[in-house]
Amino acid sequence: MTATGLDWTAVAVPSTLPDVVDDPISYERVIMNPGSTWDYFPGHYDPEYAREHGQPTIFVNTMHVAGFVDRVATQWAGPYGRVVRRKLILAASIYAGDTITARRSITAKRRDGDRWLIEMHVDVVNQNGEVCCPADVTLDVSKAVRTTRR
Amino acid sequence: MGHRAEPVGRRIVSPSARARVALSHEFAFGTYEDGLKMVGYRSEPRVAATAVSGARIQMFAATVRDPNPGYWDVEFAAETWGGLIAPPAMLMGWLIPPPWEPTGRPSARSIAIRIPLPGTSLVNASNEAEFFDPIREGDRLTVVEEVVSISPEKTTRLGAGHFVETLETYHRGDGSLVATNQNTLFRFTPAERA
């Protein structure tokens, strides 16, 4: 594994990061989530149930959306960064058949005791341009910064 | 079992209809006033049925297409974090019981659906989680759940219902705090379709 640290002084605030386009949300991926999280709410695996509850088809759960947000945050920070806080609003559901994109920006950086922290805003947008989930993430990049300074 | 009393011409109950019946048994039903009596309630600690496992970590990482070596590379994870780490987003999942258990005892379900309220469906509205020490493979988590608030009836495009705010606090076996999770979900009666 190649070490990928983070140059603290080079982090521009505010700054916009490249978008991350996810693989399409296939039916397989929607039901893989219950396979790992055991969240067998029928809206996440049964299209008939979803339609009877006013949804066009099955939709991903909160953990999936959060997992995508965490992924695009730590892909920027590198493997020595980690999410220590995440706030998200589930404004619209993400359905099987959708394709989502993460629009990311760095909104702040700050020291907290001996920690180096980054604030990132992530909008999870579907193929119609609808913001399904605005999220704010705090990344602890202390290990990444120390790796670079070593 | 013997004769099935299906009315002639009626289709056999579909798997999803069975799922609906099962689900309706898991919800607690009552009035808004019944629900309000649970505000401030704090549950006894509930222990996860199983420990955090690499297989579930990697299944989740595959779902969200996350190549983070902390989830996949045992050597890197051990050197960097003291073991494979759980994706933070899996937090709520570690306390969901398996869909079937050999003991046959009723599974402990999330407090949010045990609040007596009208409404046969739910959808999550917002979530704020904070993570302290990383959750690692082998950890067995304990959760304490609190009911923070229940809104008066509100109507959204999905239907009429109540917003239920809960706070979960997670510890690992050695007593250390690993995460807190504030969640708001919408418990509602689906609007009639046009």
Write a brief structural summary:
The complex is a heterodimer of chains A (150) and B (194). With 150 residues, chain A is an alpha+beta fold.
Throw out a few tags for this protein:
heterodimer; A: 150 residues; alpha+beta; Thiol Ester Dehydrase, Chain A; 5-stranded antiparallel β-sheet; 4 helices; elongated; B: 194 residues; 6-stranded antiparallel β-sheet; 6 strands; disordered N terminus
Can you put this structure into words, describing what you see?
The complex is a heterodimer of chains A (about 150) and B (about 190). Chain A has about 150 residues and is of the alpha+beta class. Chain A has one domain: Hotdog Thioesterase (Thiol Ester Dehydrase, Chain A, Roll). Chain A has 4 helices and 5 strands. Chain A has a 5-stranded antiparallel beta sheet with strand order 1-3-4-5-2. In chain A, a hairpin with a 2-residue loop joins strand 3 and strand 4. Chain A is elongated. With about 190 residues, chain B is of the alpha+beta class. Chain B has a domain at about 30-50 and about 95-190: Roll (Thiol Ester Dehydrase, Chain A). Chain B contains 6 helices and 6 strands, in the order H-H-E-H-H-H-H-E-E-E-E-E. Chain B has helices at about 15-25, 30-35, 55-65, 70, 75-80, 110-115; strands at about 45, 120-130, 140-150, 155, 160-170, 175-190. In chain B, strands 1, 2, 3, 4, 5 and 6 form a 6-stranded antiparallel beta sheet that branches. In chain B, strand 5 (about 160-170) and strand 6 (about 175-190) form a beta hairpin. Chain B is elongated and about 55 Å long. The N and C termini of chain B lie far apart (about 40 Å). At the A-B interface, helix 1, helix 2, helix 3 and strand 2 of A face helix 1, helix 3, helix 5 and strand 2 of B. Strand 2 of chain A pairs antiparallel with strand 2 of chain B.
